[in-house]
Write a structure and sequence with these properties.
Number of helices: 8
Order of helices and strands: EHEHEEEHEHEEHHEEEEHHE
Shape: globular
Number of strands: 13
């Protein structure tokens, strides 16, 4: 593999009503980790975007996409991307998400120029990735399970699924809410809102299918309108939580950090010679007693996740 490049993005949204505290620190911690893995730190090899910087290193939507294009611009490279900041959801224009929403990341200028959708992220990071390059991604943000729409996700009984009763109650609640919304008058907005609630209920009930019997452990295929699984790109992503969950901004040992970024780094420092699945399991284990979020692992092609992790 050729030269190593990395892109680290940490946004605290300083001064806004949605400010976070640990994202810039996450970037500093991740850069130290990459140095220990022999990633170079010169500005031709490592680009760092935070809202403490200015110019091209200020994490506006335009600068983030430009930096992502830079990251994947050369063939034969080993690439690393870390994002720590807000994640969100917007209405899905393609109709391929059961929930009715696409995942997003939130640039510092989102109020003026909007969020960056999972479809856009996939096109910039995955579709443009040279076939002989590899990309390793860590996303520490809310609603990040399929934030770059990779076609395969690792599933197991340890996937963090809530109990059958909780899931059924939540699904029934959404169906009931949709029904009550339509009572007492008809309007276009009410119908659209009801459709979103029913789509959410559908996704909950679909999530119960594995409870009818033992679930097969391994890679499960995600379905998007685009045929992403035909791209066969060597992309691995660890994300902070499932699509319907939030990721915590935490204070650990006196330091403000993202819980997922902290747990991933702790897992890697504990044992640098783990498989992809072992890193996922150990990252989840570090979080499960204090946080509800369940980190996810998704990939761009079918691969053996029991092999040693490669960054």
């Amino acid at each position: 593999m050729g030269r190593r490049k990395s892109l680290l993005i940490g946004i605290n949204y300083t001064g806004s009503r949605h400010a976070l505290q640990g994202c810039q620190q996450d970037v500093q911690n991740m850069s130290q980790f990459l140095m220990s893995r022999d990633y170079p730190t010169d500005e031709q090899s490592m680009v760092v975007l935070t809202d403490a910087r200015s110019g091209p290193f200020y994490p506006s939507g335009r600068n983030i996409l430009a930096a992502m294009d830079w990251l994947v611009s050369e063939p034969g490279c080993c690439l690393f991307l870390h994002y720590s900041g807000h994640g969100g959801q917007v209405r899905d224009p393609d109709g391929d998400r059961a929930s009715g929403f696409d995942d997003t990341i939130v640039p510092v200028d989102y109020e003026q120029n909007g969020q960056i959708t999972s479809d856009t992220l996939h096109r910039h990071l995955v579709s443009r990735l040279p076939p002989n390059s590899s990309l390793f991604v860590v996303f520490d943000c809310c609603h990040s399970g399929s934030a770059i729409e990779l076609p395969f996700v690792y599933r197991s009984d340890a996937d963090g699924n809530v109990s059958l009763v909780d899931n059924v109650e939540q699904g029934l609640h959404l169906v009931s809410a949709a029904s009550h919304l339509l009572q007492g008058g008809f309007s276009y907005n009410k119908v659209n809102d009801a459709k979103q609630l029913l789509a959410g209920a559908q996704s909950f009930f679909q999530g119960l299918k594995h409870l009818g019997g033992p679930q097969e452990e391994g890679l499960g295929e995600e379905h998007f309108q685009e045929n992403w699984n035909a791209e066969h790109r060597y992309v691995t992503m660890y994300s902070g939580c499932k699509d319907d969950q939030t990721s915590a901004d935490a204070s650990i040992s006196g330091e403000h950090v993202g819980a997922m970024s902290w747990a991933f780094l702790q897992a890697m420092q504990y044992n640098p010679n783990q498989s992809y699945i072992e890193v996922l399991q150990n990252t989840r284990q570090l979080l499960k007693d204090k946080y509800q979020q369940v980190p996810q692992l998704s990939v761009g092609l079918e691969m053996d996740l029991n092999q040693p992790l490669r960054i």
